[in-house]
Amino acid sequence: MIVLGYWNLRGYAQPIRLLLEYLQVEYKDKLYHENGEEWFNTDKQELKTNFPNLPYLIDGDVVVTESIVIPIYLAKKFKKYELIGQNNDGSFNQNEIIFLEILSILKDLRDTLNSSARVPSFKQEKDKIFNEKFNVTFEKIKKQLGENKFLLGNLSYIDFYFYEVLKIFKFFYPNLSIFTDYIDRIENIPQIKNYLETKENKIFLLDRMKSLYYY
Ligand SMILES: N[C@@H](CCC(=O)N[C@@H](CS)C(=O)NCC(=O)O)C(=O)O
Known about the structure:
Elements: E1 2-7, H1 14-23, E2 27-32, H2 37-46, E3 56-59, E4 62-65, H3 70-77, H4 94-116, H5 122-145, H6 157-172, H7 180-187, H8 190-198, H9 202-212
Parallel strand pairs: 1-2
Antiparallel strand pairs: 1-3, 3-4
Helix pairs in contact: 1-6, 1-8, 4-5, 4-6
Bound molecules: glutathione.
Family: Belongs to the GST superfamily. Mu family.
GO molecular function: glutathione transferase activity
Catalytic activity: RX + glutathione = an S-substituted glutathione + a halide anion + H(+)
């Protein structure tokens, strides 16, 4: 069975969990305790890769790390090439490049929010920061989405990534009402709907973020 290893939080693993759920793959969500003992003292030493990190994915003899690479492995393994912007038969499509561009832009957006919100003054300045730093990216994404349902037209992994980014933004900016139809669309994908209703631990995200961030 596929194993996805990560800390006991959403973090970099959450969009990958959504992808696994979407693919209806049986997987074990291996969650490491935040004290790090099991990961650093044992599993990190024993993982059969030169690049041990969290998240990791184990599929039989194959070990994959790096959060942007794991979804590419999964899409190729399950021959769902369109989930990474390729044609259905896995051949090249310019969307593959746009896919990577958007993934990189979304990662920057997420990382910038993450670092901004660790500074105490964030609490007072967050609206100004939103207008100065984040809005421009949201405008670009809005343009990319246009009248389409998903960022590349058809559903792809970056939609799961963007959905998670939006959820994080909603934590810091509860009154933010952008991409609401888009969020609903993702949440209504049957596999995702089922996951959100049955497995997702909604409380955990908030509790952990409360202790690390200013909001
Ligand atoms: N570039 C890596 C970064 C992974 C990373 O920074 N992982 C953090 C959690 S988000 C970690 O605690 N890794 C465990 C370790 O350093 O051993 C990725 O995108 O997967």
